[in-house]
Amino acid sequence: MDKHPDPATLDRLYADRDLAQLAFEYSPVGIVVTQNRVLRECNQRFCDMFGYAREELLDQLFSFLYPSDEEFQNLRNRGDKSLGQGNPYWDERVMKRKTGDLFWVRVRGHTFTPDEPLGRAVWSFADLSGVRPYQPLTRREREVYSLLREGKTSKEIARILTLSYRTVEVHRARLLKKVGANNTASLFSSLGDIGGDHVVGGNSP
Fold this sequence. Notes:
It is built from ten helices and five strands; from the N terminus they run ααββααααβββαααα. It is an alpha+beta fold.
């Protein structure tokens, strides 16, 4: 489908009152419907964002859109409580385009099956690469960064990630060095000072 509907298509959709289809197909954010982490439907914006044709995406497990299988599995069960209560969830995470380029996206999700949050769900994806360039961080560095953004201290992060305080401080120092930051505030500015309860994580499609 073209990125923009032609006038005849627009007239037909408005005449048929099929505005839900119009909103889905041409939303400014990517929209995906999943079933047990398998991509069942998506709109054109999602295809454009990741660089795939629609037929390349449908009925595929979401894992190939992540930097690695490990990253895909690591994000699996975060956010179950929120989604299980029927609440929407959002986070920001790194994903992979068809070209292999990694980029930050903001993901929002809602489940239709709270008893099984990943059973059937709808997700939106917003490309953040224009305001938040990807930095080549390891998974552990991204985890430490996400918890720093939540206001956690190094000792609290150590408990959450089952690491030593010293190890967390080493990761924090590496983060500062990678982006040329002198302190945590400038680190947030360099990697993207975007507010919210989560930066990386969440129950992942």
